[in-house]
Amino acid sequence: MGTARHDGTAGQAPASPMRRTALVAGVLYLVTFLTSVPTLKLYQPLRNQAEFLAAGGSVAGVLGGALLEVGLALACVGTAVVLFPVAKRQSETAALGFLAARTVEAALILVGVISLLSILTLRHEADAADAGTPSLITAGRALLAVYDGTFLLGQSLMPVVSALCLGSVLYRSRLVPRVIPVVGLVGAPLLLASDIAILCGVYEQGTSLAGLAALPIAVWEVALGVWLLVRGFRPAPLLAQPSVDAANHAPRRESLEQPVA
Fold first, then answer.
1. pLDDT grade for 5, boundaries at 50, 70 and 90
2. Domain regions of the chain by residue span
3. Which among 57, 101, 122, 250 is least buried, having the fewest CB atoms inside 10 angstroms?
4. Which of 18-27, 49-58, 246-255 shows the highest mean pLDDT?
């Protein structure tokens, strides 16, 4: 004779660990998108260093953007930490590559934030008469160039590596509809070509061409985040396997334990 539960959860099956993993990963992916978009507008006053150092432009906006990017860096690492055990079951190499790319991306984001906070320090400590001096403006532009460089390498190049590593895992495992990782796998070389063009001076960051090149990667990350949040992982044999390494090593251990005739 069964006993009925009276804690208000009768008839509700608890969420599986994989569903919770997908939920957390989906939320973190959407956080990375939502925290990265506003910074383009918030940092706009910094583009005119002479005016900004002379107390023009919003300091609060720059500080807000810096806080958003700190959250972005934490969310980047979070997505890799949460999805690493799942990706490892398909390919340990790809999982490690994804984890490394997201960690490097987060580190570069934080370096960029430090450079922007240094510009605010220049503005705070400079007298009104010194704000327009060439040396101070040059220092501010140098720090802004550091941010642009970290943005190119961190928030543009590292997502290419992430899309190739995680996209290949999700495509082969079929944990999500294949059209989602296909967008990332197609967008990765496109964004890589754009980054190389920017490095070679063909066009600058922030142009329409750079935005179009980054669009498929943005779609891939948003689509993945929404799918994981709403639907979770699709049923797949991969989820029932302990890990690729354990499966590969189990026969070897059994063969070692066989008695010698």
1. very low
2. 18-234
3. 250
4. 18-27
Which residue is it, tokens 């006053």? 45
Q: What is the dihedral sign for C-alpha 206, 208, 170, 25? A: positive
C-alpha distance from residue 136 to each of 58, 116, 131, 150 (Å): 19, 14, 7, 21
134 Cβ neighbours under 8 A, 6+ residues apart: none
**Under 8 Å between Cβ of 32 and 233:** no
Residue by residue, DSSP assigns 56-117 as: -S-HHHHHHHHHHHHHHHHHHHHHHHHHHHHHHHH-HHHHHHHHHHHHHHHHHHHHHHHHHH
Q: Which two tokens stand for residue 112?
A: 């960029």
Picking from 69, 76, 119, the residue whose alpha carbon sits closest to that of residue 99 is: 76
pLDDT on residue 235? 87
Q: List pLDDT tens digits, range 75-93.
A: 999 999 999 999 999 999 9
pLDDT-derived band at 105, boundaries 50, 70, 90: very high
Please, how many CA atoms are within 13 Å of residue 155, restricted to the half-sphere of its CB? 28
| Three-state SS at 258 | coil
Check residues 179 and 249 and name the one with the higher pLDDT. Answer: 179
Residue pair 49/140 in contact (Cβ under 8 Å)? The answer is: yes
